[in-house]
Records
---
Amino acid sequence: MAGNNDKTNSAEVREDRVVTNSVGNPINEPFATQRVGQHGPLLLQDYNLLDLLAHFNRERVPERNPHAHGSGAFGYFEVTDDITDVCGSAMFGEVGKRTRALVRFSTVGGEKGSADTVRDPRGFAVKFYTEEGNLDWVYNNTPVFFIRDPSKFPHFIHTQKRNPRTNLKDANMFWDFLTTPENQVAIHQVMILFSDRGIPASYRHMNGYSGHTYKWSNKQGDWRYVQVHIKTDQGIKNLTAEEGAKLAGEDPDFCQQDLVQALERGEYPSWTVYIQTMTEEQAQKLPFSVFDLTKVWPHKDFPLRRVGRLVLNEVPTNFFAQIEQAAFSPATTVPYQEPSADPVLQARLFSYADAHRYRIGPNYHQVPVNCPYASKFFNPAIRDGPMNVDGNLGSEPNYLATNNNYRFLGADRPIQQHQETWQGPAQPVHWATTGDIDFAQATALYHVLGRTPGQQRNLAHNVAIHVASADPPIQERVFQMFSRVDKGLGEAIRSEATALSQKKPKL
């Protein structure tokens, strides 16, 4: 294809370090400006000044909504165990194989300049540069989430951000959403969030989970439902509410600094990757839907199987270029790894890539950190658009021309046509029913917390200090919701929150 090797299509840095404006014209004096006389007004012809100021006005891209505040590093994934009976992806092809990877950690609700040590879920996103294309695992540090109806996501995120009148975080908004009866499916995630697990001590000391159910298949066409667990080899470490608040004031970039300094010391953090697998027949016997993002798969029924090891060993050379512009989407996948019918996952397949088209532009995949450099790119119909910098496929026709040869792998790689069969009318489905099954795993977690002294007490304390700012009717709904988990938990929250709310001024 013509043009792909044309030097004019690549932005290169001058090796002689002569400073230029954006179009390559050397600058004589960086701080001089053209004026009428020594003290007169500026001249419009001073392109170097206008070039600098105009770019300065545009040097920020819109922050992510959510997951705006984050950190990241490069490393690799290494296969330690043969799982080719489960997945035919090339990255798992042989034990010992390594694939370059980028990981971005993040908080969820906070703005870009917010603190690292706030109570919030953490994003755990991994981009693998495989020879079959880029693969994104867009995960969290919790195995469940707050919702299972995708249309509730914007509503939920709004309640975790700022009140449109006061521009303050609002306990009434926060708890009003979560205690609405049909939204109490979030209770398992809320329990995790308000335990000490809600504030990881560092990114190196937390796990990552797919949360969603995916579908993996081997090269023989056998498929299974899969969930992925990325477990820290450094051990889990968390902060109390008071420790987190202290660090947020003294060192708001604590986790960013911890990650960078660990890498610079050569203390490369690692995680062991496991999978859980389930057959379609097993899924039909579950007491809950395999597509329910608010549930975990019991390990006794679906044990962890080791896959490999994820290691971070490289600090990005430029944070904006390699982390801020990094674009992750669960739709970015490779052969033999497919999405399931989880409705929240299905919605994310669109929304994540669309967010990057808005933030960075329609050619965000051409930014070096997002390029599928290990597999390369070819699609004659995906052309043009703002900031096209990869040669635009040169003189290649911009459609599938009848006199050109193209290769397609579908005949060799059937995807889903032999898997589930869906049939029924197009209909609106609101997954609203909340029953005892939605509280069972939260109660089990509360009993697990009881095995470690102080953890049940800390959970009650963390909820109480948060809900103390809410109005009494909202507080009562919170007490009742946690009482469904355990009556003692509900009473402990009530006792402390009531005492605290009597001391706090109301807005």
Note: The radius of gyration is 26 Å.
---
Amino acid sequence: MEVDVAAAKGRPREFCVDRALAAALGVFWSKGYEGTSMADLTEAMGISKPSLYAAFGNKEALFHKALDLYEAEKLHYTRAALEQPTARAVAEHFMRGAIEAQMSGCDPKGCLEVISVTACGAEAASIKADVIQRRASSQVALIERFEQAKRDGDLPAHVDIAGLTGFLYAILQGMAVQAGSGATRADLERVVETSLMMWPSR
């Protein structure tokens, strides 16, 4: 999508909003919200600060748009995971999908949402709240899927579904932190295999 945005000297500047947003996502992903400066963003996006404000709003608004793009492009596997035939297959699809997303050769390592939710400054309060809300929505969908598995007899009757969901998210978040700290694909694959060995069976 091409747009004309007034540049600093009043001369129209034409740039691709989608490409600029993808560039912003890369910066936020690699540096985190608090670690990203406006200078980092304008340089990566190839636009002036006035153009950024005109097209996206402030840094916070830009991050929310980048997070939307991240979820649409990088977390599509989570939607496919919920359609798997068994609860164990759901969990495995989540974890293996996370490995593919976190270990991609063309993207920063780790998970943007995990990086962002650990931000602690006052500026990042709304960012953290947004990420937590998005994660809560995803957890609700996963809980509903596991509850269905329990009703179907796919999970034992004694299983605490909320606890099981929390366990899976703890594994996913831990994998993201490890990926961002230099873990290899083989390291993460071992985490997945061990987690699946601990998965409750009938």
Note: Confidence is low (pLDDT under 50) at residues 1-13.
---
Amino acid sequence: MTEDTFFTDAKTQKKKPLYQPNSIYSPHVSYHYNPNVGEYHYGVKHPMKPFRLMLTDHLVIGYKLYEKMDVYIPKPASRDELLNFHSEDYVDFLQKITPDNLSKYSNLLKDFNIGDDCPVFEGVYDYSKLYTGASLDATSKLISGASDIAINWSGGLHHAKKSEPSGFCYVNDIVLSILDLLRYHPRVLYIDIDLHHGDGVQEAFNTTDRVMTVSFHKYNGLFFPGTGNVDEVGVGKGKHYAINVPLNDGIDDESYIRLFKSIMDPLITSFKPTVIVQQCGADSLGCDRLGCFNLNIKAHGECVKFIKSFGIPLLVLGGGGYTPRNVSRLWCYETSIMTDVTLDSKLPENIPFRNFFNPDCSLHPNLGDKLDNKNSRKYLENVRTKILEQLRFLNGAPSVQMSEIPPDFSKLSKEEEDEINELNNEERMIIDAKDNARIGELEA
């Protein structure tokens, strides 16, 4: 018999989910976005297109992934929140500069690194507050325990420095989020799989052992930002807590995934982070406008899936990515990984701007094999060996006092600090007990 006994009418078919659950277990996931963030514009010829965030949200909505998450529209970050990391003169400059008054502040443009990469566009300060506010809101949900995984695709702008923008990034939402996490977590692991080195985050935490930064990126000494060689390992108390994985052009799916897992598995086991921040820059995909790798969407997502498998509270952020249709495909797919469902490979029929994904309208176009892979097995094994050798210096997870906030970052009143210290003392007793437990011993 070739025909089905039962068939569905058009109304039932319309209500059919576009995803299939993968397992019974599903972490509590929250999705943080502000619909206004995609309306800003760096300039006609600028490669950064906030419009990619609107496309991402359309795909997430089209696949009905909102049914699997708590969805929040967060408030913008406040000026005081930005000052938890950024200098007051820089925040004041961002607040007052506009395209109309550029000539008035022409003497300051060079001081604050304003140029082609980081132009002044209409609403730049408000834009920065929106994506930063979403990251801080996601962070608060992790801290409170309301979420096991919190997602903000508009965040992940990892180049911004304390007193200037860099690499299309004006406010470093990642640093601000990690500073909040440090008030409640003894050890934070930051993982960056953007095409570019996460220099702003590494620089902020270069001297502390409470934050380990790990960045997989292209490096040849000239490619922006010019940092991130394997010998950059942190300084002082933070020595060996900065891990850099320099890669050459054209790395493919198999090589990247194998290297990523072989480094991250022993690293997480050794450092024992109590929370992870994952930056998922999409410019490491093949066919990116500024890219030079051969990664497909599933390979990029496999790295995120691997980190999720450790079951550690996870903040998931966006980052680079300059071919909007592929950026949105990737972040929608990685949202499905976080929510533990499998999506139809054919994009939903009813999404706006569906023509952007022509001709195949697929979630997984072929993005690999466009460039020669200049990462030999010998080169990658050499990088891996150097990094694993670096991990030997860690001697396990550092034992820290939760009151130790990196210098100049504490902005709380004495009463607030006392309340947090009391909470931290209780939490530290629990964490230390787990850290000291013998392998295989069940904690009550």
Note: The first helix runs from residue 10 to 15.
